[in-house]
Amino acid sequence: MKAAVLKQAGQPLEICDVEIDAPGAREVLIATKAVGLCRSDLHFIDGVYPALMPTIPGHEAAGIVEAVGEDVRHVAPGDHVVTFLAPFCGSCALCAGGQQSLCQDPSTRRGDDKPPKLTMSGETVHQFLNLSAFAEKMLVHENACVGIDKEMPFDRAALLGCAVITGAGAVFNDSKLKPGESVAIIGAGGIGLSAINAAKIAGAKTIIAIDPIPAKRDLALKMGATHVFDATEEDVGKQVIAATNGGVDYSIEAVGRAETAELAWAIAKRGGQATIVGMIAPGKMVTLHGPTLLSGKTLKGSLMGSTHFQVDMPKLAHFYLNGQLDLDTIIAERIALEDINTGFDKLRTGGDARSVIIFD
Q1: φ and ψ of 63, to 5 deg
Q2: How many CB atoms lie within 10 A of CB 298?
Q3: Fewer CB within 10 A of the end CB, N or C, for the chain?
Q4: C-alpha 2: how far from chain center
Q5: Homologous superfamily in CATH for domain 2-147+330-358
Q6: Residue 197 contacts by C-beta under 8 Å, 6 or more apart in sequence?
Q7: Is 40 considered catalytic here?
Q8: Active-site annotation holder among 16, 59, 318, 355
């Protein structure tokens, strides 16, 4: 199969022929139909986060089940599925407590005593975030995919696997936003726009978007923001606090920088909550002024919007199909696998919401 392989951080991905194994117990072989280019991939490609190499990045995908191994119960050949980078075992303390997205049980990964899932010229290709989606096929644990309505277009479905589940999850699961409340979203990329749309669905009265790029602020308004602010202005935090008479009920940071995490804390009102979903680089520290801890606010970290994957993903697909969730606006362009490096160059500039690779 063709795949985009990362052999060295900081270097372009290479389109290579890669061999993929047959599915083992509780494993699912998927023909990839669409995969989004996410800034999280870029963190590993550029070396901000470490990764075992060679590897095939990509983690925001949708496709069709080709084959399943023994003991697979949730999906069958022919099913349309969305993948998820954090497979869950279903029986550990985290899973039993409703925190499936935090599960790290090794049973969801193929053991070292088994053949590698991916090889190239006889050498192991390391699987990226349990998926390796920049390839014509994926071999994943059954709890890393979920079936969706076959009416759901693959390019929109792929976005559900990261950007949408993270942004919407930050609203529905982490914030538990109620009608009439206020929220501010920092960053109007794919995750931020999804959070804005989810806040609209949840019935927020005030939805603030903060981003440095005018075009993204325009997209935010289209997705449901009631107010937009320029992140480059030094007093943007004070502007938001003034506009909301003391701050918002919930703030969501979707950029991945210490400065924007601190801004999220600053603009949350007394007793409010700041949720950080962006990937802040290793070694970066978030600083909070001591007296602000007396304001009753909560600072919450979140992985993938604290999602309950098998329940939330089909629900989000339903929101799209009934017209509530706008995924069309999030997609900036559709490209071929061979154009992946150009797509990531565009992402580095911050200009596009989401590029999606389409497989025939």
Answers
A1: -170, -165
A2: 13
A3: C
A4: 24
A5: Medium-chain alcohol dehydrogenases, catalytic domain (3.90.180.10)
A6: 167, 168, 223, 224, 325, 326
A7: yes
A8: 59
| pTM higher than the cut 0.90 | yes
268-317: pLDDT as tens digits: 999 999 999 999 999 999 999 999 999 999 999 999 999 999 999 999 99
Which part of the chain has CATH 3.90.180.10? 2-147+330-358
pLDDT beyond 70 at 133: yes
- Type of residue at 194: S
Record the tokens describing residue 215, joined without a space: 């075009």
Please state, as a whole number, how many other Cβ atoms lie within 10 Å of the Cβ of residue 322: 8
Query: For the domain 168-302, what is the CATH code?
Result: 3.40.50.720
Annotated catalytic residue: which of 43, 80, 227, 308? Answer: 43
Active site residue 43: yes
The DSSP 8-state label assigned to residue 7 in this structure reads: -
DSSP letter at 241? H
Q: Which of 38, 101, 141, 175 is catalytic?
A: 38
Residue 351: what pLDDT?
A: 61
Tokens of 220: 């935010």
Residue 6 has what DSSP assignment? B
pLDDT at position 95 over 90: yes
Residues of the chain within CATH 3.40.50.720 domain(s) are: 168-302
Among residues 40, 194, 302, 306, the one annotated as catalytic is 40
3-class SS letters over 104-165: CCHHHCCCCCCCCCEEECCEECEECCCCCCCECEEEEEHHHEEECCCCCCHHHHHHHHHHHH
Question: Of 101, 162, 194, 251, which residue is the catalytic one?
Answer: 162
Q: Is 318 a catalytic residue?
A: no
**103 noted as active-site residue:** no
Burial of 150 (0-12, 13-18, 19+ CB in 10 A): exposed
For residues 273 and 175, give the distance between their C-alpha atoms in angstroms, rounded to a whole number: 7
CA distance 20 to 7: 17
